[in-house]
Design a protein that fits this description.
This protein is α/β, with parallel strands linked by helices and 404 residues long. It has helices spanning 18-32, 47-52, 56-68, 81-86, 96-104, 185-202, 218-241, 250-259, 270-284, 311-318, 328-345, 348-366, 372-375, 388-401, and strands at residues 5-6, 11-15, 36-37, 40-44, 70-73, 107-112, 129-133, 143-147, 152-157, 165-171, 176-180, 205-210, 245-249, 264-268, 290-295, 301-305, 369-370, 384-385. The radius of gyration is 23 Å and the shape is globular. It binds NADP nicotinamide-adenine-dinucleotide phosphate (NAP) and magnesium ion (MG).
């Protein structure tokens, strides 16, 4: 029996809630601990602990991520009124992901995991399409007013030591509505840097789009900032890595995406990303096969599954009923974090373990053993339905066989 892989520096480990908390324990027990001498700084983001610490634990975990550079996160409950009752909460604590994102100031990259037997609804998409969504401003920070006949809407800028500027938006001769939106150069530049860094990190082309033919100042600003950040900081690295950045109009890009084979990062303005990420996720088949990475311009990476805590399965699990919950996105969150740790620590055996872990998971599914969500979609003639634990044990067996 060979030695376990050692980790030089820790990963920040954020535990979570419900069925994914159960998966978390099993993944560590069956897949990670037999091979890796896990070195993690553990934060329990389960709802009970957030309540007990008045949610300080979430901020502490985010701060630790800035210190150590790599984190892996389990899905967590974002409380609503029902959850406040269910868990006897003193407050409706904020979404942990929102808290973490605001501390790391990051961009979220969502990428599907492709596997043989699950055919995307767009059959030409044979490689993953990663969506990066700008998470600040535009219509998500807007101000809106209804207007009635006779009102005049104006855009006014004051202060800042400059003369007042005033332009008419519209003079209403009937009822209508007005909206004011904004963004900041700082946020756009951070978004651009996160996209360029992630493209280099994953060696994929970066596509970006806006509507600057119509929005000649607002959308044009996005295009210009992307271009100047690229020229000043990334052009050479892109050329060395053999990848490209290209900008085009959103309508043109949408048409190109549909005709593409995938294998690139699509950087989206806030609203475009909201809409397109759901379209792309649905086209690839299963929410349980979607990963998510938060890349901070402060040099930190956090990996997680894109799905939630799978509450319905958890209630079955609690009742002692069999479950068939797909752990693949959770496994890939761990492999993403371990690979990144291996790369930053100069530890190729850790990065190699991450590759083998992913391969073992995909090979298991491609051999026909899969959880219910995939069983319903798979075109494999020999597919067999596995429970959560049976699936994990099948992956563990393949992983064991892949020891170097
Ligand atoms: P969800 O946990 O993503 O699950 C929605 C449905 O999708 C499930 O009921 C299940 O369908 C299917 N599904 C999702 N992941 C699956 C998996 N790994 N394997 C098999 N099927 C899977 O969303 P939700 O039920 O709306 O939310 C539950 C909790 O998660 C909420 O409290 C929410 O706040 C939280 N949440 C957290 C995050 C995060 O931490 N990143 C993200 C989203 C939601 P079937 O029931 O049909 O089998
Ligand atoms: Mg959406």
């Amino acid at each position: 029996m060979s030695e376990k892989i050692k980790m030089k520096n820790p990963i920040v480990e954020m535990d979570g809630d419900e069925m994914t908390r159960v998966l978390w324990r099993w993944v560590k027990e069956l897949l990670l601990s037999p091979h890796v001498d896990l070195n993690t700084e553990y934060y329990d983001l389960g709802l009970a602990k957030r309540e007990e610490t008045s949610d300080r634990v979430t901020a502490e975990a985010a701060e630790a991520t800035l210190r150590h550079g790599v984190a892996v996160k389990c899905a967590t409950i974002t409380p609503n009124e029902e959850r406040v009752k269910e868990y006897g909460l003193s407050q409706m604590w904020k979404s942990p992901n929102g808290t973490i994102r605001s501390i790391l100031d990051g961009t979220v990259f969502r990428a599907p995991i492709l596997v043989r037997g699950i055919v995307p609804y767009i059959p030409t998409w044979t490689k993953p399409i990663t969506i990066a969504r700008h998470a600040y401003g535009d219509v998500y920070r807007n101000v809106e007013l209804p207007a009635c006949a006779g009102r005049r809407a104006e855009l006014v800028l004051t202060g800042g030591g400059a003369p007042e500027e005033r332009v008419t938006i519209h003079e209403f001769d009937g009822g209508g509505v007005v909206r004011g939106v904004h963004n900041t150069d700082g946020s756009i530049a951070s978004f651009a840097r996160a996209c360029f860094s992630y493209a280099l990190d994953t060696k994929q082309d970066l596509w970006f789009s806006a509507k600057d033919t119509i929005s000649k100042t607002y959308d044009r600003r996005f295009r210009d900032i992307f271009e100047s950040v690229f020229d000043a900081e990334y052009k050479e690295a892109f050329s060395n890595a053999g990848i490209t950045y290209f900008y085009t109009l959103i309508d043109d890009l949408v048409a190109r995406v549909m005709r593409s084979e995938g294998g690139f990062i699509w950087a989206c303005k806030n609203y475009d990303g909201d809409v397109m990420s759901d379209m792309v996720a649905a086209a690839y088949g299963s929410l349980a096969m979607m990963t998510s990475a938060l890349v901070s311009p402060k040099g930190a990476f956090e990996y997680e599954a894109a799905h939630g805590t799978v509450q319905r399965h958890y209630y079955k699990y609690q009742n002692g009923e069999p479950t068939s919950t797909n752990p693949v996105a959770t496994i890939f969150a761990w492999s993403g974090a371990l690979r990144k740790r291996g790369e930053t620590d100069g530890s190729p055996e850790l990065a190699d373990f991450a590759d083998r872990l992913e391969r073992a998971s995909l090979d298991t599914i491609e051999s026909g053993v899969m959880t219910g969500d995939l069983y319903a979609l798979s075109t494999l003639p020999n597919k067999r339905l596995a429970g959560t634990e049976a699936f994990l044990r099948a992956v563990a067996q393949r992983l064991e066989a892949s020891r170097p």
